[in-house]
Design goal:
Rossmann fold; 560 residues; alpha/beta; elongated; 3 domains; 11-stranded mixed β-sheet; 6-stranded antiparallel beta barrel
Length: 560
């Protein structure tokens, strides 16, 4: 059952919570007049609610109802009077509608909360403002590794905790409109998670280049200038997407590419025969050629690939059409000489340095920097999907082939770009790689974090694999519907809170928390706040931007 809270007055440090010291009769706020199993109606009057905080009955507040063996906990979701007019000179009967979420019993160790209702309250039962100790029992940290990420919105003296093991192993999602503090929330979660789990590696796919500032002390930043991702690490589908620059792919050319890449890998990695072409001869490498194919991640030379295509074109009879071979050769030549793609085709990328490349990207060893911020904004736009596919796929494979030795969290910012609801709008290999982590990653220690401002545009299958959700303010009805579908036993009355919660607030529910809660994230120090490409912090717009020369802009456009 979903539980959402309206902000209330916190206890002060100067003394105990007033609710704990007042007479129990002073906490009475009404009587139960209807109960249908999951909901109840409480009757109150204006005189009964005028003697204490006006926000006692605010939408989203938790209250308790006296039961036979303890106290039933409910959340206020609707209020109305029996009359359409408010009477200033007489009592006004008020109906308070609540959803029942669980019950609290007293034990020698203190109050104990459990979800669900075992014994329902009788009609006429007294409704109270909830005790501070009862709130603490509802949101106690529980067992396992827990991290503190903020406080309850209803009572800022109660810390908000999540179980980091459950949050990671069963995946999580952070969603909210622009400017509500998503990136700051993510930075808090990641910083606390890497502290609690020192062996966790995090790879952030950062399309806006905003997370570097948030993790300057514990991260490595990889950008277009420092990236080294050899073309031979790309599978054929990924490589073809780069070659065709995101345009429609010619399947005949892809078949030629697949055949010639396989031959180029064999020529480069297997001991040559005495009759081999001198330009293709290379010292033998220990490799089992029986299983080698176009997708096997072993080095080969672009010069060899293009020479093989030229040789095939020169044959009197070839199973491939010459116009297709000629077109493919032209694409490869153009790509190989374009400065913007030097991260794929530099001289060093022909070496078999796969272990060094992956060790750097996936922080093996960690060297006190468990996070790699992968800045995608500086890459050519036509290769972003392929690069995301390669990184997502390899993240899973490292975790799998290391048999869980390396735990890797892949955090996808703006995830709806990679796994949109409309499959036809996505790049298939990227979608498949992320989906594989979502569905199978838990077994091997590959985890997924999804961040999006438009959950309505996100693949619902991917979202359904995220067992912990941090839902920040969402005003779009479709986005709210998506969150509603992700909350078990949820209703329209509770999801309406998403359009009105404040910045840095979130509705948190799922397996990483004992029960759903409305929280306010802790305030980050300014030097740990994410910074957008425009120079502003998360949720802000920079008012002072440093000017850059047109020469620098031109160099960046040209890949210089």
């Amino acid at each position: 059952m979903n539980m959402l809270f309206d902000s209330g007055k916190a206890a002060t440090a100067a003394g105990p919570d007033r609710r704990e010291t007042e007479n129990p009769s002073q906490r009475i706020i009404g009587r139960l007049i209807l109960c249908n199993g999951s909901r109840a109606i409480i009757s109150a009057s204006a005189t009964e609610i005028s003697g204490f905080n006006a926000d006692t009955w605010a939408i989203g507040r938790l209250i308790s109802i006296k039961g036979e063996k303890g106290r039933i906990v409910g959340i206020v979701y609707e209020m109305n009077t029996t009359s359409e007019l408010w009477q200033d000179d007489s009592n006004n009967v008020i109906y308070i509608k609540v959803e029942l979420v669980g019950e609290i019993t007293d034990t020698p160790q203190g109050p104990s909360f459990r979800s669900g209702i075992g014994t329902y309250p009788a009609l006429g039962s007294i409704a109270h403002r909830i005790r501070h100790a009862d709130l603490q029992s509802i949101y106690q940290a529980g067992r396992g590794s827990v991290i503190e990420i903020g406080t309850l919105s209803q009572d800022s003296t109660i810390k908000a905790h999540v179980n980091v093991d459950m949050m990671l192993s069963r995946h999580f999602a952070v969603m909210g409109t622009t400017g509500v503090g998503k990136s700051s929330a993510v930075s808090i979660l990641l910083r606390r998670a890497t502290t609690a789990k020192p062996n966790l590696r995090v790879l952030i796919l950062d399309p806006h280049n905003e997370y570097t500032k948030a993790f300057t002390d514990i991260s490595l930043t990889i950008d277009a200038a420092t990236l080294e991702l050899p073309f031979w690490l790309f599978r054929i589908e990924e490589f073809a997407d780069v070659i065709f620059r995101g345009n429609k792919i010619d399947e005949d050319e892809v078949e030629i590419l697949r055949e010639m890449v396989t031959q180029a890998k064999l020529r480069h990695n297997v001991a040559p025969s005495p009759s081999a072409t001198p330009s293709l001869i290379k010292k033998p490498v220990t490799i089992d050629s029986s299983g080698l194919n176009a997708d096997t991640p072993v080095p080969y030379r672009m010069s060899d690939l293009m020479k093989l295509i030229e040789d095939e074109m020169g044959k009197l009879e070839s199973k491939h059409a010459r116009p297709n071979m000629r077109a493919l050769l032209h694409r490869l030549q153009t790509l190989n000489h374009e400065p913007r793609f030097r991260f794929m085709f530099s001289r060093s990328t022909i070496d078999d340095n796969m272990d060094a490349i992956l060790s750097r990207i996936f922080r093996i060893p960690i060297d006190n920097k468990p996070i790699a911020v992968f800045q995608l904004a500086g890459l050519p736009s036509e290769v972003v999907n392929s690069v995301a596919s390669v990184l997502s796929r390899i993240a899973f494979e490292i975790a799998m082939w290391s048999e869980g030795t390396y735990e890797i969290l892949l955090l996808c910012e703006e995830a709806h770009r990679y796994v949109p609801a409309d499959a036809s709008q996505s790049f298939g290999p990227t979608r498949a790689a992320i989906a594989r982590i979502a569905k199978e990653g838990r077994k091997y220690g590959a985890y997924l974090g999804i961040v999006t401002q438009r959950p309505g545009e996100l693949d619902p299958t991917i979202l359904s694999q995220c067992s912990t959700i941090f839902a920040m303010r969402l005003s779009n009805e479709r986005d709210q519907d998506i969150v509603r579908s992700a909350i078990s036993d949820s209703s329209a009355s509770t999801i309406s809170f998403l359009s009105s919660i404040g910045n840095r607030e979130a509705i948190t529910f799922g397996e990483a928390v004992g029960t759903p809660m409305r929280i306010k994230f802790v305030t980050q120090e300014s030097h740990y706040l994410p910074k957008t490409a425009s120079g502003g912090h998360d949720g802000e717009r920079s008012t002072a931007r440093q000017e850059v020369s047109t020469r620098l802009v031109v160099n960046r456009m040209r890949g210089g």
